[in-house]
Amino acid sequence: MARNEAPRTVGGVIPSLYGLAVLSAALALVVARYRPEHRPIAWLLGYGVVSDVVRRVIRLYVLQPARAELGGAPFTGWVRVAGHVESALFVGWMAGVAALAVWIFSRRRPWGVLAAYVVAVAGLAAGYPTFRGELLGKAYVALQLAALCTSVGCLLLWFAGRERAKVHHVATGLIIITELSMLAGPYRFGVFTAWDLAQSMLIALYVTIVPVQGVAVWRRTQ
Asked: Is 0.90 surpassed by the pTM of this model?
């Protein structure tokens, strides 16, 4: 669920979004108990919830006060470290989606994705303060495009193999489709300015993935 703007509560949308995210992660954990192949999805959805909460705390209680005090000057010291942690968590979602696609559709360990993630995070940190503001937003979009190219490539190769789709394939496909929609839709207007539109797509993802996993749990109990 990780996005890079402090969400604004409008008509209960944000509580609903977090509620659906937690429910999706919880159902994924239940499915993973008897379907080991579903564990990567549970890990990613759980990561999305936890990282979003941590990032929100960092933004509200560290970065925003420091930004107001510094008047736009670059961060230094522990505030800069906190900023890099927040950035790494955000990029981690993109890398997680690519790693999930490699794991589920290619059936390979995503060590290459992990290496690329480490390089990307290190590059953004080393490039600060050049990488901030608009340029940082462009870097995020480029990283998401790279992650989606990997994800879609794995999905297409799996689809060409005509393997029967199971719940972990469907759930992974829904996540990839949502990220594609993000890139084609809200992120065309900027990573930092399109949260209102992006959250509606996230809600659509969770509204779709909850019944998919719920049906899997229901069938197990029958």
From this structure: no
For residues 100 and 40, the answer to whether their CB atoms sit within 8 Å is: yes
Question: Which residues touch 83 (CB under 8 Å, ≥6 apart)?
Answer: 58, 63, 75, 128
Give the pLDDT confidence of 26-82 residue by residue, as tens digits. Answer: 999 999 998 999 999 999 999 999 998 899 899 999 999 998 998 878 999 999 999
The letter for the amino acid at 28 is A
User: Which residue shows structure tokens 């509204």?
Assistant: 207
Q: Which tokens is 116 given?
A: 């690329």
137-146: burial string, b at 16+ Cβ within 10 Å, e else: bebbbebbeb
The amino acid at 97? V
Task: Give per-residue pLDDT as tens, 102-138.
Answer: 999 999 999 999 999 999 999 999 999 998 888 888 8
Q: Enter the DSSP assignment of 61.
A: I
Give the tokens for residue 164.
Answer: 């029967």
